Predict the structure of Acyltransferase.
Amino acid sequence: GWYGFLAIFGLGIQITVLGKDSLFKPPFKRVLDWAGVIPVKRDSANGLTEQVVATIQQYDKIWIGMAPEGTRKKAKKMKSGFYHIAAKANIPIVMFSFDYDRKTIHCLGYLTPSGNYDEDLAKIFERYEGKISPKNRNWLAEPLQNLVKKT
C-alpha cells in the first residue's frame, strides 16, 4: 500500500494527485491540502480533462500521479483521460509499474502523445509487458491482464 508514497518521498519528487472535491471537508481538507492533492469536480460541465489541463497550465513544474486502469474494480477497457490530458497539456506520459511481489517500483520511460491514441496505447502496453505484478490481478483493466509478469 504505502510503497509508492515512500518511493516518492525518498526520491524527493513532489507528485500531485487529484481528489474528488467532496473529500475536501474537515477533517480531511487540511491533510489533503498539505499533501498537495488538487480537488477536481468529476461532474463539472467543463469536464475533468479540461479542469486538469487548466490546473497543469497554472504551474511551472508539476507531476500528476494517475492510475488510468482503475484501482478498485476491473474495467473492460483502459480509461483514456490520462492520454487526453497529456496530449492537450502538451506534456509527456511518464510510466511507472508496481511490482507487488518484490515491493519495487520501476520507471519505464516516457511517451510524448502523438495524437493517435490507439498507436500510442500499443507503445505503452509494450513498455508494461512483463513488468506488472499487481496485488490483485482481477482489478486490472482487461487489456492489462495479459501484460502481467509471469512468475
In short: The first helix runs from residue 3 to 11. The chain has two domains: 1-65, 68-143. The first strand starts at residue 15 and ends at 20.
